[in-house]
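User: ok so my PI wants both of these folded by tonight, can you help

Assistant: No problem, let's get them done. Here's the first:
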Amino acid sequence: MTRISSETEHYLLPEILESDQPEEHTVNAAISNAAFEFVMELKNINKILVYTQTGLTARLLARLNLPMPILALVSNDNLKRQLSLSKNVYTVEYKKLFEDRDGQ
């Protein structure tokens, strides 16, 4: 089964998928879609780095089937284990928490 899925993945093209995201996820989806368009336009990018507190942005980027790895900076081990199940997402534990610069 692993051999079949690995062979099939070579033929999958990166694409933005339409989804029924809840209203509160539309900003994250917009950021992910913009990152997708940016990465596909510039050919010399070989990694994407994302800081995530919930893992949502990293998961949304993984859904887009990008040709480069996604490095997710996470603040806890539980989230690190959860994201290890997402395709092409590699986690790095980063203990420092950032606050929203806009205070939201």
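One down. Here's the second:
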Amino acid sequence: MLTHCGTMSIETDRREAQGGATLEGAVFEIVNRSQDAVLVEGTLYAAGAVVYTMTTDSEGRARTANNLLPYGTYQVREVNG
């Protein structure tokens, strides 16, 4: 599974910054929302734990590596942007 995230303008509903803003550098966390722990890159993460953090590029996009996340339920949340 490949996870994609990105930032968009709420006002224009487009992937473009307004004024002097930038879409680059927004930080997203992926949180384990499964009932059980998950194994990500050799580490076991309990339910509710942040399993991965990613930052958007100059186009406002971020992604995980292929097959990073095992089957389960996750939440992606923006923590800085």
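The mean pLDDT is 83. The longest strand covers residues 74-80. Good luck tonight!
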